Each structure stands twice: as C-alpha cells, then as structure tokens.
Amino acid sequence: MMIRHLQPAEWRSAFPVIAELRDLDEEEFLRRVERQSYSGYQLVGAFEDGKLVGVMGMRPVHTLARGAHLHIDDLIVTESCRHSGTGRALIAFADAEARARKMTALFLDARQEAIPFYERLDFIFHPSPSMKRLLK
User: Which domain holds residue 62?
Assistant: First the structure.
C-alpha cells in the first residue's frame, strides 16, 4: 500500500471514495477542496495496486485551547477495502505529518459507528463538545 498527498490534478479521482461518506456532487466537492486548500487543507490517498482505495482530508490548525494540531476532516476507505489496514495506514500517515510539523495532537470528528475504530488507535474523547448554530 502506498500513502501520499494527492496533487490538484488528482482530486477528481478522489471523488468516488469521498462520495461513499459525503453527499456532495463532484463539482461542489472540487470547489470545496480548492477553497480549503488555500488554508492548508490537503487530500491524502491510499493506493492498493495502483487503485485509490482510501482518502483522508487534513489541515493544520492552531488554537489557543488546543495549540498546534492536525485536524482530520474526512477519512474514508472504500467499502470493499474496509478492515484491510487502510484506515490505520492513513492515521499513521497523519501522525507522522503532525510529528514532522512539531504539532501536539491529532483531532477529528467521528461518526458514532467509527468511534470504536478510533479508540483502537488510541484516540480519546475530547472533553469539550463541538457545538454549531445554523445561520439563516
């Protein structure tokens, strides 16, 4: 398995994987990735025999409360490749990136059904819950 940053010309190839989790059309996906890339967001791909089987979005963040950390926005492994070590390899890649950047932690938002996976990788619940308010 090879894990590496995706180049902008490869973003479109990540859409079928992302679409397994996110309800976006392809053009909106590309617009959002481009917009987020201006702030350091990167897509990372996991390749098995040359085929893209996993995608992770990540971005550097620095806050007063959490310090410098890497935030994983999305981690998706294709249905047929789940339980193959792909997700674990993507997390290891993010961990190495954060350490290389002298960051103190990895943060992510997890769907309820993914929590056991992250707990097996030593993620713990953060004490402050995320809140949101929709603007009308």
Answer: 2-120
CA distance 115 to 72: 14
d(CA 133, CA 135): 6
Domain count, the chain: 1
How do residues 105-118 score in pLDDT, each as one tens digit?
999 988 888 999 99
CATH number of the domain bearing residue 68: 3.40.630.30
pLDDT tens digits, residue range 42-97?
A: 999 999 999 999 999 999 999 898 889 999 999 999 988 888 899 999 999 999 99
Say what the pTM is: 0.90
| Residue 123 phi, psi dihedral angles, 5° rounding | -80, 145
